[in-house]
Protein 1
Amino acid sequence: MKRKERIELYREKAEQYQARADRDEAKEKVAERKRETRRKILMGAAFQHAVLGGVSSDAVQELISCLSDYITANNDRELLGLAVIHQTENTPHTHIHKNEDKND
């Protein structure tokens, strides 16, 4: 095999390996998003059980307070049974906070 042919073969192999690595990386990102969604569902279910189950504790009240501070979109607040925030000129309209430290 000539040197130029060998170089071309190596380039093709490199492209194939890169494509395989890209596919694997994409699959891992999808899997991580699924794990993150599952974590959120489980945490929400535990929180809902504590709140709706009538657990009366300072910890639950603190969680409700955090939730109230975190959720700022009124349609979401209504869904969760939180007081609606009345917008004023001094109160900017905001939505649910986004996780700023995502690695995507």
Protein 2
Amino acid sequence: MKYTIVGSGASPYVRRLRLYLQGHDVTFEVINLFDEHGDKRITHLNPLKRIPVLIAGDQVLWESRVIYNFLQRALSRPATRLIVNFGGGTVKEMP
């Protein structure tokens, strides 16, 4: 399936989504909305004008939690929580 992230590179929500897909070796395209046509594109995709937006095949999804739930099912990944220990510099996934 082809995945496209629509948003801004400066958005932490878009960055998290990009990292999630990269961490699962998923190929995707990113469309940056900071150009002269950005506002028209986001309005067409999401009437609330919120980012990120994920285009997955013929489905258009917005709202981060909805996107992550969709990806967990689509990629057959169990739900996980990311545990970060800044003191020891460790990052691990917990079921």
